[in-house]
Amino acid sequence: MAQPPYDPYGGYGQDPYAAQQPQPYAQPAPVPAPVQHNYYGGPTAAPTTNGMATASMVLGLVGIFFCGFTSVLAIIFGHIAQGQIKRTGEGGSGMATAGLVLGYIVTLGWVIFWIFYIGLWAAIVGSSGSASTY
To answer: Which candidate, 60, 38, 50, places its Cα nearest to that of 86?
Structure first.
């Protein structure tokens, strides 16, 4: 007679002293975000960002380094962009506003700087020409 195969757990097939490991709970599948559909059933496209709004913000930032010359363009492009955004419903209203604010602040700062700078030179030149030695 043949012997049955050796079973270290006494014929039960598993270790009676092994602790049962709790099974992790299965995470529910993520729910996709709802997609808005247009009248014909296709998904609606996200509004595009207005190019003038982007240009306004970039020119407002760059105006700090270019003595405010591009800040004037930032103001012009910002106002044009806001008009286009109201008319067409494009995105970029925040960028247009940021470009306008930066444009006005940088332009005002550089105007004040140039007024004081020219005033300082006028004071220096005026005081050096009026001194007499006799």
So the answer is: 50
Question: Is the residue at 45 inside a domain?
Answer: no
C-alpha distances (whole Å) from 88 to each of 27, 82, 85 are 43, 10, 5
Other beta carbons within 10 angstroms of residue 43's beta carbon come to 9
Total of domains in the chain: 1
Residue 97 falls within a domain, yes or no?
yes
User: What's the whole-model pTM score?
Assistant: 0.60
Segments forming the whole domain that contains residue 115? 51-126
Q: What is the pLDDT along the chain (134 residues), one digit of tens a residue?
A: 566 666 665 555 566 566 566 666 667 777 776 666 666 666 667 778 999 999 999 999 999 888 888 999 999 999 999 999 999 989 999 999 999 999 999 999 999 999 999 999 888 888 876 555 55
